Automatic annotation (TrEMBL), chain A:
This is Cytochrome c oxidase assembly protein CtaG. It comes from Halomonas gemina. It holds the Pfam family CtaG_Cox11. InterPro entries: CtaG/Cox11_dom_sf (IPR023471), Cyt_c_oxidase_assmbl_CtaG (IPR007533). SUPFAM superfamilies: Ctag/Cox11. The keyword Nuclease does not apply. Its main location: membrane. It is found in: Cell inner membrane.
UniProtKB/TrEMBL annotation, chain B:
NCBIfam families: CtaD_CoxA. Residues 1-20 are annotated as: Disordered. Its EC number is 7.1.1.9. It catalyses: 4 Fe(II)-[cytochrome c] + O2 + 8 H(+)(in) = 4 Fe(III)-[cytochrome c] + 2 H2O + 4 H(+)(out). It comes from the Bacteria. It comes from Halomonas gemina. It is a multi-pass membrane protein. The lineage of its organism: Bacteria, Pseudomonadati, Pseudomonadota, Gammaproteobacteria, Oceanospirillales. Cytochrome c oxidase is the component of the respiratory chain that catalyzes the reduction of oxygen to water. Subunits 1-3 form the functional core of the enzyme complex. CO I is the catalytic subunit of the enzyme. Electrons originating in cytochrome c are transferred via the copper A center of subunit 2 and heme A of subunit 1 to the bimetallic center formed by heme A3 and copper B. It is an enzyme of class 7 (translocase). This is Cytochrome c oxidase subunit 1.
Length: 198, 543
């Protein structure tokens, strides 16, 4: 093989290597963004991370397991910069698995102007989140309150009977975040509305 | 492509070995333009190395600000806000500005010489990827002068600390990281293209020196994970400026997602900073033991195994975020599995020295210190891999001790070893022996005095990244601070050694070290600007 031939072959090889690495690069960049929905799906399927379904679920009709009691605690928080209060009628209830329960939450807008907010739920321990079924929840949608307005909203939930026996206490945390109408529109994962995919 | 334009030799640097003298007629730019426009792998390699050395001192000064504040409990010198900026900038500068460019510089200089190639495959791209770096880091450093200060959220920039609660300069930080990332990616493409296509005729993959092998694998890691980093910081940028909610729980996002994405980049990044170090040490130890490297093939496979495993361990940085038990166990076991190929490497280095005829020139001193101290860092890494124990160690100075042991007496010592090893090839002179020995011993004492006590303060519960601490940690911190200043000052000796070595000193022959066998030792010292314009005759001599 002459020197020229060798050089030409080297150049060809370089071009091939570079185009292949560029393909891998583009693929990995896309993969990083693909991980965002994948992560969501993964969390939803496994219930990891304390994420609960954002849409109403059917009640599972099963016999109430009267042999054991589970403590369900409620924690409410309003984030800084939002003049709202979120209160719950009772801090904790004792329920049987399988039984459906209703708890009322109170939203109060202490500010003078109308504003919008959304309560974001989290469940601890996270293993419990797949066994928690919400039939109705204020957290499925944003709330809009006029200045000084007060709103009572129910949470109807059920803990299914297959809840692992070692879980004695389930804590539901609701954190209020302000919602700018514009921000909600561009959000890559706008919370699904009720009935979207139940 | 750039490679169609042959580099032009300079009359003042060319020697008889440089071919292509027909091009002499073109005048080469002089002065500053020579460096701005150079496409020569040796000149670009030198630029990378000088850049990384200056970043090393800037990052070092930031570290000394931190250590000065931590000399005593209470707040003496700086405000907590500034302290946070110093810890953050120290980490960013050292990782992206000092260690990574130093390895790229060594690759630029040595990979073409070690495989018998005339230059990098894409010389003009090479120039571009270097000159992106000063831009990136000038931008990053300028954030310190901006209203609200520079990045203050730690080098891991966890959201929402780096999005919702970040200073306004964060957008500049993101841009500078993008530029540095593009530089790394272009450098990696160039190195892969060079190694795969420009080897001397007859050199098979399994004939390549280990520095070339480790860099090839490192370059693949860079190609795989730098785009993920680019993706993460792009998401941050959109969360900050365009109202998206990737990491914002209020909008349906998740801050923990940030940590998963970051560490999916971050853990391979850790190996990007250590694999080339393995390659350097694997060149030096056989040379000064006057033996072949023990287990060449197993070294190659161990490096590849470490690279593959590095994609399966990221969540060991996140043991306390509330992972399910299954995940804790999975990441604990995969992390411990990495100890196996790493152990193979340490074993091979020791076996290479076994019954060798060892001499202790400065490169060998640094390489030996690397093996011992990197192993210390490896062991503390195993302790951290134990998930239940990590709940205690997490975010303490034990973690700081661990990663500084693998990065300073690990990666940095390997870079220093490589510099001492190849300085005769670069400058034509041996580095001053006495000064090198002083540099070595002061560095070893300084580095251990700095980081060893951190194991104890960490196990006792001292949290990292906090400008103040409880009284019982005072003694450990006095030792750490004194050690840090000793280590920092002794690096000035290194600069002195380099300056003296460039200006003169004992003349080095082409084969500067008795046991050195790779191709770079077949060209004269100092290496002429153009080498291997006709491919060398390569005969597999070892492995």
């Amino acid at each position: 093989m002459s020197r020229q031939e060798q050089q030409a072959r080297g150049r060809e090889g370089v071009r091939r290597t570079v185009s292949r690495t560029l393909v891998v690069l583009a693929g990995m960049f896309a993969f990083a963004f693909a991980l965002v929905p994948l992560y969501d799906v993964f969390c939803e399927v496994t219930g990891l991370n304390g994420k609960t379904s954002n849409s109403a679920q059917m009640l599972v009709h099963e016999e109430v397991d009267t042999s054991r009691m589970v403590t369900v605690q409620f924690i409410t928080r309003a984030s800084a910069g939002l003049p709202w209060e979120l209160d719950v009628q009772t801090r904790q209830v004792r329920v049987h698995p399988g039984q459906s329960n209703e708890v009322f939450f109170t939203f109060r807008n202490r500010g003078g102007d109308a504003s919008q907010a959304r309560a974001v739920p989290s469940v601890s321990p996270s293993e419990a989140s797949v066994h928690l079924r919400k039939l109705s929840c204020f957290c499925f949608q944003e709330q809009r309150l006029e200045g000084g307005e007060r709103l009572e909203a129910p949470l109807v939930f059920q803990l299914t009977r297959d809840l692992p026996a070692d879980i004695k206490t389930v804590t539901l945390v609701y954190t209020l975040y302000p919602v700018q109408p514009a921000q909600a529109a561009v959000s890559p994962r706008r919370p699904r509305k009720e009935g979207d995919s139940a | 492509m750039a490679s169609t334009l042959p580099p032009k030799p300079t009359p003042e640097h060319s020697t008889a070995t440089a071919g292509g003298m027909a091009e002499v007629g073109h005048a080469r730019p002089r002065g500053l333009m020579r460096w701005l426009l150079t496409t020569n792998h040796k000149e670009i390699g030198s630029l990378y190395l000088i850049f990384s050395l200056s970043m090393f001192f800037i990052g070092g000064i930031f570290a000394l600000v931190v250590r000065a504040e931590l000399f005593q409990p209470g707040l003496q010198l700086v405000q907590p806000e500034f302290f946070n900026q110093m810890t953050t900038m120290h980490g960013l500068i050292m990782v992206f500005g000092a260690i990574m460019p130093a390895f790229v510089g060594l690759a630029n200089w040595m990979v073409p010489l070690q495989i018998g190639a005339p230059d990098m495959a894409l010389p003009r791209l090479n120039n571009f990827s270097f000159w992106l770096l000063p831009v990136a880091f000038a931008l990053l450093l300028s954030t310190l002068l901006m209203p609200g200060g520079g990045p203050n959220f730690g080098w891991t920039f966890y959201a929402p600390l780096s999005t919702t609660y970040a200073p306004p300069s964060t957008t500049f930080f993101i841009l500078s990281l993008h530029i540095a990332g593009i530089s790394s990616i272009l450098g990696a493409i160039n190195i892969i293209a060079t190694i795969l296509n420009l080897r001397a005729p007859g050199m098979r993959m399994m004939d390549m020196p280990l520095f070339v092998w480790t860099w090839l694998i490192t370059a693949f890691l860079l190609i795989a994970v730098m785009p993920v980093l680019a993706g993460v910081i792009t998401m941050m940028l959109m969360d900050i400026n365009f109202g998206t909610s990737f990491f914002n729980a209020a909008g349906g996002g998740d801050p923990v997602l940030f940590q998963h994405l970051f560490w999916f980049f971050g853990h391979p990044e850790v190996y990007i900073m250590i694999l080339p170090a393995f390659g350097i040490v694997s060149a030096i130890i056989p040379t000064f033991s006057r033996k072949r490297l023990f287990g060449y093939a197993s070294m190659v496979y161990a490096t590849a195994a470490i690279a593959i495993l590095s994609f399966l361990v990221w969540a060991h940085h996140m043991f306390v975020v509330g992972l399910p038990l299954v995940a804790e166990l999975f990441f604990m076991y995969t992390t411990m599995l990495i100890a196996v190929p790493t152990g193979v490497k340490v074993f091979n280095w020791v076996a290479t020295m076994f019954r060798g005829s060892i001499s202790f020139e400065p490169p060998m001193l640094f390489a030996l210190a690397f093996v011992v101290q990197f192993t210390v860092g490896g062991f503390s890494g195993l302790m951290l891999a134990i998930s239940p124990a990590d709940f205690q160690y997490h975010d303490t100075y034990f973690v700081v001790a661990h990663f500084h042991y693998v990065l300073v007496p690990g990666a940095l010592f390997a870079i220093l070893a490589g510099a001492y090893y190849w300085l005769p090839k670069w400058t034509g002179h041996y580095p001053h022996l006495r000064l090198s020995q002083w540099h070595f011993w002061l560095s070893v004492i300084g580095v251990n005095l700095t980081f060893f006590p951190m194991h104890f303060s960490g196990l006792a519960g001292m949290p990292r990244r906090i400008p103040d601490y409880a009284l019982q940690f005072a003694d450990f911190n006095v030792a750490s601070s004194l050690g840090a200043f000793l280590f920092g000052a002794s690096q000035l000796l290194f600069v002195l050694v380099i300056i003296k070595c460039v200006r003169g000193g004992e003349k080095a022959p082409a084969k500067a070290w008795e046991g050195a066998e790779d191709l770079e030792w077949s060209v004269p010292s100092p290496a002429p600007l153009h080498t291997f314009e006709t491919p060398p005759d390569f005969h597999p001599h070892r492995h």
